[in-house]
Design a protein that fits this description.
- There is one protein chain.
- With 336 residues, the protein is an all-alpha fold.
- It has twelve helices and no strands.
- Helix 3 crosses helix 6, helix 6 packs antiparallel against helix 7 and helix 8 crosses helix 11.
- It is globular.
- 22% of the residues are buried.
Length: 336
Amino acid sequence: MMEDHSTARRRPKAVRLDGDAGSEKMAPEARNVTILPEAPGLIAAPDTTDRLNARPGRNLWTKLALSASAGLVSLATGLAVADLVSRLFSYSTYLGSLGLLLTIILTMSLIALGAREFAALARLASVEHLRARAEATLGNDDRDAARSLAGDLTALYASRPDMARARGELARHMADIVDGADLVRLAERRLMQDLDRQAITLITHAARRVSIVTAVAPRAIFDVAMVIAQSAILVRKLAELYGARPGGLASLKLARVVLGHLAVTGGMALGEGVVEQLLGHGLAAKLSAKLGEGMVNGMMTARVGLSTLDVVRPLPFTALARPKLGDILAELAHMT
């Protein structure tokens, strides 16, 4: 009896995914396995995720959208002010003149504030550039680059009477140094030593204030507010100490850089050395729970200050020792 090919069904079998023609002979337990065709679009290619994440035009379009939004807001504000002034003139010439005068004063004030913010951003960028130049000079030992760097550092602190002696000592010994790296280390010892001492004092006092206030604060929200406020003030003071003098926008940029540095260096976590030092001073047995919370908040503030040093200091730590959290905590323990 001849088999009807129109109704006959082929026995199910497994097929190799790599397309090997010699895969007809399969294990008995795999003969009833049916391989369904792959649904399109369910499985992405290996590089699809990378292509989706790496969109070079996304940042450009975001900047364009923000710029267009700012432009529209500025136009709307200008039209609103112009309409207000014209309406004031329709009521009275004196009211219109007063509105026009206030508009001129506001415009001049905004221009002055914009210029000041631009100058603050430029100062912060110059400090970052000096640090990058110092790191490069320490690597390549370029004497000419080191002399140029020393001259720019002297110009940065030219208006500081308290650093006149340090500037003079650096100028006297500049011609005697042959190696560029040694000249950078000399500039660090002469110019940064007193500034580092003042910075440690600022950090210690800020941590002490946070420790005391948060130890007696009745609510946790006060602890958070105190830590944030004192950290912001400390970041600004340290930037001014080293010559950055940030404004509003520059302070926001500086805060973002400091937070990024904190994330890279381990955040505000406490190391084993800090815990051992606290136990060595016997504070663990003496502090109450609330005072212990104040000490932890003070440690957080000190950690922010130390991270700020790595950002606003125009020279890296090479000739001078980098301040450690344990040293500040030791001073904080004596002061407390």
